[in-house]
Amino acid sequence: MENYQTLLAAVTPTEGHADEVSATAPAVATREVFDPATGASIGLAPVHTTADLDAAVERAVAAQPAWAARSDDERRATLHRVADAIEAAAEPLAELLSREQGKPLNGPNARFEVQACANWLRATAETPLPTEVVVDDGETYAELHYRPVGVVGVISPWNWPMMIAIWQIGPALRMGNTVVAKPSEYTTLSGLALIAVMNQELPDGVLGVVAGAGDLGAALVARPEFGKIMFTGSTATGRRIIESSAGNLTRLTLELGGNDAGIVLPDVDPAAIAEGLFWGAFINTGQTCAAMKRLYVHDSVYDEVCEALRTVAAQMPMGVGLDERNVLGPLQNRMQFDVVDRLVETAKAGGARVLLGGEPDRAAVGNFYPTTLVADIDPHDPLVQEEQFGPALPIIRYTDLDEAIALANEVEVGLGASVWSADRDRAREVAVRLEAGTVWINSHGGVHPMIPFGGVKQSGYGLEFGVEGLKSVSVPQVLNG
Ligand code: NDP
Predict the structure, then answer these.
(1) Which residues are named in the active-site annotation (predicted)?
(2) Measured from the CA of 387, which atom of ligand 1 is nearest?
(3) Is the beta carbon of 214 within 6 A of some atom in ligand 1?
(4) What are the start-end ranges of the H helices in 223-352?
(5) Domains along the chain?
(6) Which atom of ligand 1 is nearest to the CA of 258?
(7) Tens digit of pLDDT for each residue in 98-142?
């Protein structure tokens, strides 16, 4: 895919041409996709039907035994070639991602996301998964092996539409599974384009994709052929997935977002942590599952931290993603703009103090919500209690650390959290009291391909990344004797 136009053409069904991506019947329906920053038309996305889903599942089932029969080394080498193909198409992929998702090319955004896809595939290929000898005492000998689960369904979200898909597709393929992916209807072209590039290096049928307009997710989950479904999205949809997969006892990994707290202890240097706090909260313009969504700051440093954060935040340019200067973009969709707008307006009405932003141009074409900091907010305000998933951070003042920890733990979700302190040991004492799958110290939200990642409480279950991630797309088999 030498440029943006060829990449787009590869995923756009045109009259008389079969839909090359799913290699199912020609897509009869299409829908227009619009740039969330400018409202401009980007292109046409196919609208696959449940018949297309049936065909994609059949192809994945048929391709799986031969893919699993390849050696681990062969599959690992293939993943490296897929990573090469992504790197070769990196700039067109980043441009499409920027236009459709809205995220800027620069900063920790579109180019970063595409490169992360290649890096993640390589790390997945290089993760060792040795056979475990679980008992060898002279009388009993038992080994634990991990075998493919079969066909894996991947339902991915619109915030990091390429990287999150790779997090799930990469390990699934490594372990000898085939995959049927379903990108979000908000970022269909990005999902299709990534998979088109990957399919340059993968055997037929190993990685299929279907893209609908609101009815395929439930149909996919109900199919008995899937050994595993991996879903990233809202808790409400996660619950529906549990219900519709129950009949087949399908294994699930559910990454259902969060409402991550950051706790700033009194001993910090506000200027030194301000940029880390900013990106912890505002990466991808706040549309990140493990972004910091509530910040608790001790009264003794509250005003200084607010001011340092305001200074950093005010300097970060927001605008159209293709403009190389910008590092923050629009919200991907109007639904999310409205969520952020409602929560900030409620906070204002409740007496909270807006330090920055908070006045969107609702009549503008793009879904731009300005970078917003809300101070002196009630800890039980909806902007604190609900997931805003956008660029509006509530900053809560505390005096008693035990109370701050209790407030951090009182929400129903528990994906990530962070503690900020000059004293690492003190921070670790606080960290272990937080109910979250990951607690970062003096940073927030960084992920690593070798470090397990997953939520607790209503943030879902199942671990991704590293050896735990490989095991989660496998079924264990004990050889005893
Ligand atoms: P959802 O979490 O509701 O997920 C939508 C996806 O789930 C679509 O692909 C949809 O497919 C599929 N789906 C819907 N119903 C079912 C079902 N019964 N069975 C299987 N799949 C189903 O995301 P939204 O985009 O609507 O976002 C809602 C909220 O989720 C956001 O406001 C945000 O707070 C949160 N979110 C969290 C993310 C995270 O990273 N954890 C990412 C994105 C959003 P189909 O349309 O074909 O049914």
Answers:
(1) 255
(2) 34
(3) yes
(4) 235-245, 270-282, 302-314, 334-349
(5) 4-256+459-480 (3.40.605.10), 260-448 (3.40.309.10)
(6) 41
(7) 999 999 999 999 999 999 999 999 999 999 998 999 999 999 999
